[in-house]
Design brief:
alpha+beta; four-stranded antiparallel sheet; 3 helices; 31% strand; DUF7528; 144 residues
């Protein structure tokens, strides 16, 4: 199957319609007809591309295909060791609302040990300008 290249666009104009031959995609006015098998393969590939897992020292961040973002304790196997946000932007808003120097108790959006997990995630994730200030009690600082 030939590769499909689509230029990045600021538009959100994407449509898909079933046809007798498969599926017709329309992206910003450009049309492409795919067989059902190719469309299913594309759906799977898009889902895989939208789901990304980043592991750090103590935490893992997961971008889900539905747009949500999950912070997990690394190697944890129960839901009590994770926190789900509607999006990565929602997690960023939590970070943005924290004081310049913050501790686990400043995170009132979660309870228990998940507060410490989020402090570690802010420190470990390169997308957040935070660093570990003190390990006991766990304290982080915002900064460049």
């Amino acid at each position: 199957m030939p590769a499909l290249l689509v230029a990045f666009s600021d538009s959100d104009s994407v449509d898909a319609e079933p046809t007798d031959d498969g599926v017709e995609l329309s992206v910003d006015g450009d049309r492409l007809v795919l067989s059902r098998a190719a469309a299913a393969e594309l759906r799977s590939a898009v889902g895989d591309a939208l789901t990304e897992r980043q592991s750090f020292g103590r935490t893992t961040g997961v971008y889900r295909s539905d747009g949500s973002y999950v912070v997990e304790r690394r190697a944890a196997e129960t839901t009590g060791n994770s926190t789900v946000f509607e999006s990565f932007d929602d997690l960023w808003r939590v970070f943005d609302g924290l004081p310049e120097r913050f501790v686990a108790d400043d995170l009132d959006c979660v309870t228990g040990s998940r507060r410490h997990m989020l402090v570690w995630h802010f420190v470990e994730h390169p997308g957040f300008p935070a660093s570990l200030a003190v390990q006991r009690p766990l304290t982080a600082e915002k900064g460049p």
